[in-house]
Every structure is written in C-alpha cells, then in structure tokens.
Amino acid sequence: MTELPMTPDQNLSRRSLAAVWHPCTQMARAAVVPPLAIARGEGAWLFDDQGQRYFDANSSWWVNLFGHADRAINDAIKHQLDTLPHVMLAGCTHAPAVELAERLSALTGAALGHTFFASDGASAVEIALKMSFHSWRNLGLAEKSEFVCLRHGYHGETIGALAVTDVAVFRDAYDPLLMRAHVVASPDSRLGAGQEALALADLRRCLSERRGHVAALIIEPLVQCAAGMAMHEPSYLRAVRVLCDEFEVHLIADEIAVGCGRSGTFFAFEQSFEEADKARWPDFITLSKGISGGTLPLSLVLTTEAVYQSFWSEDVARGFLHSHSYTGNALACAAANAVLDRFERGDVLAQNRQQAADLAAAFAPFGQDARVQHLRQRGMILAFDVKPELLGARFSERFHLAARRRELLIRPIGGTVYLMPPYLIDAATAQFLFEAVKASLDEVLSEDASHVA
Asked: 111, 279 in Cβ contact below 8 A?
C-alpha cells in the first residue's frame, strides 16, 4: 500500500518523536498521540502548520501572561539583544538585573530587599532551601537542617526540589536519592470545612516535635497547582506565618505558579495581610514562569535583610556560592522588566478582577452539573473535578484531544480540569471556553458511559 504523503505538521511531529525527549511525557504514549506541532503564536492563540488555531487555556504551562508574541515584551528583548545579550553576574552587573531587583523589592515594600537570580522554578526552590540551611549554619545553628512541606505539594523535579515535593508520580522513582522532609497535612478546601484547622494542628505538632531542627517550611500560597489546583484560604497563610515565627523557622512561599497576578494580587501571599499588619511577608519568595511573560527562562529568589546579613563576611565559605552561567541573563531580565511595566501602566490587577468575574459567570453552570464537584476559583485560576466514578481510562489524554477538536489547548491533571489562561479574557471568550470545555466533557464521558453499557 502506498503511504499518503505527510503534511508538514505531521512530519515535524514525527521528527520530534525521533529526536526530542519531551518533558512530563511517557514517550510510548507520545508515539500513539504525537506532539502537536505549533508554528506560531498570536495573543491567546497558537497555530499549527496547517493554520488550525488553538486557544492556549493553560498559558503554555502557566508562563504566558499577556499572550504570545506580545509586542512590548518582544521589543524590550530586541532592544536588549542589540545592547548586551549576556554578561556573567559574578564580578559584573548590568542595568536590567539591578532594575528588576529594585522593582521586585519595592513591590514588597522593601521587606524582601535582596534578589538572587536563577533560570527555572526548581532551581529557585533549590536556592531557597540551600540559603535557608546555610543562613542558620552561619548563625551557629547548623542543626536546623530539616524541611517541612505539605501533602501533595509540588516544588520542582531536581533532587533538592523533589525532596520537598509530595507528588508520587514525580518523586517515587527517585526516592532513594532524596533527603527526608517532613510532610504535613494540606489545607486543601476540598477536604471539608475543618481541614484548615487540622492542617495547622499537624504543622504545629511537627514543628514542636522537631523544634530546633527545622530550617524552613515551604508552601504554595493559596493554590497547590500540581495537586489538582487544591485551594485554601488566606487565613491559613496568616496562621502559618505566626507558627514559623513562634518556632523560629523560615517560611518559603513558592509563588512560581501563583505569582505575577495569577491569584488576584501580584504576590499570592499578599492576600494574607490584614490592614493593620503589612509586614508579615515570608522569609523567601520564589518566582519564575510568568515573570518573563512566557519568553525566556528566568527565576528569582527574594529574601530579607536578616538572611542576607547572615552571609555577610570576609570568609568565602560563609558566602552563598550557588551559581550558573546564565544567572541574571540580561535578555530575560529585560523581558521581566517589560512585564512589570505592563503591571504598572496597564492596571493589570484591576483588569484581571473583571476577567476572573467573566470566567466565574461563564462556568457557573458547572456548579449545578451532577458530573462535576468542587468548582473553585482563585483569581485567574479556575478548576473543577470530574467525579471519580465517571472517569474512564486515560481521561486526561482523551479530554485533551476532544478539546483540540474544539480549538482549545488544555491539559487536565488527572480528573481535574483547570484553566489558567493568558490575561486576555472577555465575556465572549469566557463563554467560548465554557462551551468548548463542556462539549469536550460531554464527548469523553459519553464514550465512557457507552463502554460501560
């Protein structure tokens, strides 16, 4: 039989399977469901080689804030490219890095006045963990070498980050390589009204039992994303800050996914503040993903004067010597400064409140859908769970393919369908998203019902 000629799109997918080892992918399944070959992006839309478009409902792994090929961000990168693409940040500095660090400090009211640069989210987590331990050691408290994390929390897939990650599919294969962290209960609101109190009691128990040995607690403020968009209230963050103070433990707020306006405020942790007390910042904030607007790899660790001063010494061994070649890359910093420009000049947070309201209104019917449970939202993150008894084999994969047939690019996490779109939503777009999600759900669950029958 003569084979049909491959389209350019199909050819690129096949070449990719032969040459590219794709992340977060079982390549045996990729051979069955090949990667979608994307040719270009414009705004909230991605286009394949055949001109078919797809709404990027998950912002390409949560990085794309203002759409693809945003002119202002691209222009900033192009200008920097013609000026200074990169210089090592050891012994040198440059204006984009200094400006970015100053602006991020200002966003915390100078509470977190020092910024350390890295390349990706997991690296930022590694830095925060190392910095916490090393800070305590420099203060003569080397026994504070343990870490606490939340049940089902996710903080990256390098060895250090995996040690404080409690998602089995990522962690279990490498468990023999990892340091032992203490895992405490999650405040996941899906577990009932009393879960926050139970989670805080479990944290207090752990910190009390390991008093003098815990260096830091690491959390994802407001939304545990890889746990299926598990959400909790700002009151939990307030109580956690108090507990960390009581037991002299650093608090690391991993805002890699939830920062940069995703949750409704620039930093998710801000929502824990009460008007009378604006100084209750964590000891570390990690940022990545959206900070460069989906253009270039960049991550940052923001920390306090107290932590910074604990490394201040003529002794090199007391310094923080973590580094990589592209630390503080000027192009990535220029992109991040352009992102901050947009927040300053465009009233992004106010616009996001309206966009979040549009999403909530469009998806409200799922609150009455018997197939759905735990419809929830925090800012520009909306999610619901399909009832477990309705899920057939490979639900996530089949939903993804059904959605693609409706011009929607979306990747559920297990039985959790979520949207984390670019900040480019209006009421009509929100309605399109709801209709595409509902039609995809109808198709996949109808298939499962017919198989059962």
From this structure: yes
Range of the domain at 433: 351-452
Q: Are residues 314 and 378 in the same domain?
A: no
pTM: 0.95
Contact 381, 229 (CB under 8 A): yes
Structure confidence by residue, pLDDT tens digits, 95-124: 999 999 999 999 999 999 999 999 999 999
Residue 280 backbone dihedrals phi, psi, to 5 degrees = -95, 50
**Separation between Cα atoms, residue 54 and residue 405, nearest integer Å:** 9
In this structure, is the dihedral angle defined by the CA atoms of residues 85, 90, 93 and 98, taken in order, positive or negative? positive
DSSP letter at 85 equals: S
Strand runs labelled E in 43-152: 45-48, 53-56, 114-118, 146-150
**Residue 447 has what pLDDT?**
86
Tell me, yes or no, whether 82 and 180 share the same domain. yes
Say if residues 349 and 261 touch (Cβ distance below 8 Å).
yes
**DSSP E strands, 298-342:** 299-303
Domain boundary among 308, 324, 346: 346
Q: CB-hemisphere CA count at 13 Å for 63?
A: 19
Residue 12 lies in a domain: no
